[in-house]
Write a structure and sequence with these properties.
The chain is of the alpha+beta class. Helix content is about 35%, strand content about 25%. The chain contains 6 helices and 5 strands. It has a 3-stranded antiparallel beta sheet, with helices on one face. The protein has a two-stranded parallel ribbon with strand order 4-5. The longest helix is centred in the C-terminal third of the chain and has 15 residues. It is globular. The relative contact order is 0.15. The mean pLDDT is about 85.
């Protein structure tokens, strides 16, 4: 008999994330030197996330809406394991694929085709799985023959298409997306949303 927690993919309980940042938007060299002389730091505390709790049932979609600086990306980074909570608890049941920074780990000297292998290996996939999915990834990206060129020759749009295509075909159980579907041309945006 499955327990109630088997139906929950993500549980966030009283999450707080606090970090230090520069007190000024652009600290000057003079002010930095003055702070060193006084042995003080020009930092301020930012309470990025304050007491957030929620649950995401398996098979559902949760969207976070809010103004810039409201903590949406910070929460996603914490769910992905990139940031540690200051306090509170995050429980994730399932393999997470964060689409927060596309193309992390890609090698710009390698071709798109080679970066598909690299991206799959970094995600913990077996080489046989990567080979099996490569034709789908290439077709979905719509890059055609450009897939054999080094990605340093790609436009931003081409790079985004490849990176999203690789990430989307990794069979995630939990996918975290941060404003990425706004990239690329209109046709690719629709295909990305459908995927």
């Amino acid at each position: 008999m499955p327990s109630a927690s088997d139906d929950i993919a993500i549980r966030v309980e009283d999450l707080w994330i606090t970090y230090q940042t520069w007190a000024e938007a652009e600290p000057t060299l003079v002010r930095s030197m003055q702070a060193l002389r006084r042995r003080t730091k020009l930092t301020r505390t930012v309470n990025a996330v304050q007491g957030v709790s929620f649950e995401v049932p398996r098979g559902s979609v949760l969207g976070m809406v809010g103004p810039n600086g409201s903590g949406k990306s910070t929460i996603l980074r914490a769910l992905a394991g990139i940031l540690r909570p200051t306090s509170g608890r995050i429980t994730v049941h399932g393999r997470v694929t964060p689409l927060l920074s596309l193309g992390v780990g890609f090698n710009f000297q390698l071709s798109g085709h080679e970066n598909i292998k690299l991206g799959g290996l970094l995600a913990g996939m077996e080489l046989s799985e990567i080979r099996e999915r490569t034709p789908e990834i290439i077709e979905f990206s719509g890059l055609g023959d450009a897939i054999n060129r080094p990605i340093r020759t790609y436009s931003n749009g081409m790079f985004t298409r490849l990176a999203f295509s690789v990430a989307a075909f990794l069979d995630p159980e939990i996918m975290l997306i941060d404003e990425l579907l706004a990239a690329g041309d209109v046709e690719f945006r629709f295909r990305s949303s459908d995927k």
